[in-house]
Write a structure and sequence with these properties.
The complex is a heterodimer of chains A (95) and B (147). Chain A is an alpha+beta fold and 95 residues long. Chain A contains 4 helices and 3 strands; from the N terminus they run αβααβαβ. Chain A has helices at 13-19, 34-45, 49-62, 72-84; strands at residues 22-27, 64-70, 88-93. A 3-stranded antiparallel sheet of chain A has the order 2-1-3. Chain B has one domain. Chain B is built from 5 helices and no strands. In chain B, helix 1 (3-27) runs antiparallel to helix 2 (35-61) and helix 2 packs across helix 3. The longest helix of chain B is centred in the first third of the chain and has 27 residues, at 35-61. The two termini of chain B are 30 Å apart. Classes of the chains: A alpha+beta (95), B mainly alpha (147).
């Protein structure tokens, strides 16, 4: 039986970078009301009202929360959409 | 709402549109490591905030009755209206009374402080009023979002 040829895996720095995950962080702000923030999360993140409320409470209590983690392109899109809802959203690279 | 009040409010909101756009961009944490992304992001935020303030001004200009009734045709328009209120509140907060601490803003009895200049008191009244309007709309649009 012939041994299968295994192509050596080449991982360049570029591909490793592309695979890094990004967090969308939302920080507490004193202007936006809790109900409004829940509506924003349901609309942008497409989560249930219960999940949106959990995130909102976490932000209110802890000052900030990670609301989404994944690839950079999607993270950028979500952070921009949340900023269009006037939330204090930002991108951070996953540690 | 009287015709005069409606005109004053609409004019105020039109005036605040460019400022609201600047505040939206200034507050945003725009990724700076990619020129294309930065340009797109800035343009999108500016356009969005200007459009929202115009939407709000036009809604007030066409409000009917006393108390005034603003008719929003669909959910998308209602969500836009919610964002527009948030944009104007943030602009007022940052541009007119950024010297007043958050804790004081939450105490409604302080909003009518006669020692404050008239324009600041008017801005505070608008800020509080828009907040009530926003909460009322959230309660109508999505009661399950309220605690």
């Amino acid at each position: 039986m012939a041994r299968p040829k295994i192509k050596p895996e080449v991982r360049t720095e570029t591909s490793a970078k592309a695979e890094r995950r990004w967090n969308v962080i939302v920080r507490n702000d004193p202007v936006n009301f809790m109900g409004y923030v829940v509506v924003a999360f349901v609309s942008v993140l497409r989560v249930s009202h219960e999940s949106a409320k959990r995130l909102m409470r976490l932000i209110h209590e802890e000052g900030r929360a990670t609301v989404w983690t994944g690839d950079r392109e999607r993270a950028e899109m979500l952070a921009l959409e949340l900023q269009q809802w006037h939330l204090d959203a930002r991108l951070e690279q996953d540690a | 709402m009287t015709a005069e009040a409606r005109t004053v409010l609409s004019d105020l909101l039109r005036l605040i549109a460019p400022a609201a756009a600047r505040v939206a961009v200034r507050r945003a944490r725009i990724p700076a490591d990619d020129e294309d992304v930065t340009g797109y992001w800035t343009g999108a935020l500016e356009a969005h905030a200007s459009e929202e303030a115009r939407l709000l001004a036009s809604a007030f200009a066409t409000a009917k009755g006393d108390p005034a009734v603003i008719l929003l045709r669909n959910e998308a328009q209602a969500l836009g209206f919610l964002r527009a209120i948030s944009s104007v509140r943030l602009a007022l907060r940052e541009l007119v009374f950024n010297d007043i601490p958050d804790s004081r803003l939450e105490a409604s009895e302080d909003l009518d402080d006669e020692s404050l200049p008239a324009e600041k008191r008017h801005a505070l009244a608008c800020y509080a009023c828009f907040g009530l309007l926003q909460q009322s709309l959230v309660a109508q649009l999505s009661p399950e979002s309220m605690d």
